[in-house]
Request: fold
Amino acid sequence: MPEGDLIFRAARTLHRALAGHEVVRFESVLPALTRVHEDTPITGRTIERVEAAGKHVLMRFTGDLVLRTHMRMSGSWHIYRPGERWQRPRSDMRVLVATKGFEAVGFNLPVAEFLKPAELARHDDLRLMGPDLLGEDFDADEAVRRFRGRGALEIADALLNQRIAAGVGNIYKSEVLFLCGVDPFAPIERLSDETLREILATGRKHLKANVADPKGGITTYRGYRRGAGGDASERRYVYGRARKPCRKCGTLIRVKAQGPHARLTYWCPACQA
Ligand SMILES: [Zn+2]
Reply:
C-alpha cells in the first residue's frame, strides 16, 4: 500500500495539470466507466479539482461527477505531455483523461468508479475513514479515541488501519515506531495516550515533510523519474535494513511479517524494547 504522501503528491500533480481545463479525450477499458461515458460523456466536462482523501484520489468533474480511484499495491497515475512516450505498456492503461495540455493515465488501478457527490459522501471507505494525517484539520483526539476502541490491536497493525487514522503505509509504519522507540508488537492498550500522540505527531511530521514542495511546477512522469535513483533504504532508519546495524545503537535490525496481511515490519529490538 503506498504511503499517504505519495497519493497526496499524485493528486496534487493531477490537480495542477488538469484543474480548470476541459476534457478533450476520455478512454477506459473498464466497462463500468465506459458505460457512464457513453451515457453522459466525460469529454466536454471541466475538471474542477483533484484531491487526495486518505489513499483515495478523487477527480471532480463539472456536472456532479467524481472519479474515485485507489491504487492499492499495483496502481499508479502518470502525467504526460501529448505525444510523450508512456513509461508503462498500453495494456496496463485503465483510465485516460486528456486535456489540451496533458494526458493523465491511470495504470493498473484496482479501483476506479464514477460516483455522484452524494454517493461519494455515503461511501463506507471514506465515511468511516479516520482523521487524515495530511489533512489541515487533523484531529489527534479523535485518532486517539479510535486507537482506544481497538485496544487489542498491535500498534504497527493499527497504524495501517485507515479507519483509525489515514495516511500511514508500510514504510512509515516501521520508521515512525522506530523514531518513537515503540515496540511494533505492543498492543495499543499497553501504550499511553502520550505515546499515541507522539506516534501520530511523528507520522504527520514526516508525511508533511515529504509533500513540501517549494518549486510548485508540474513535472511529467519522465521528468519526475530523472530526479529519482539511488537505494532508498540508505535514507531510512529501519525499513529495508534487515540485519544491518541500527543507526542509533548498532544492534542488528530485525524483520518479521505481521498482522492478517503479513506486512513486513522492521525494528530495532534494543531501541524498541
Ligand atoms: Zn537500536
In short: DSSP finds nine helices and ten strands in the chain. The chain has a mean pLDDT of 91.
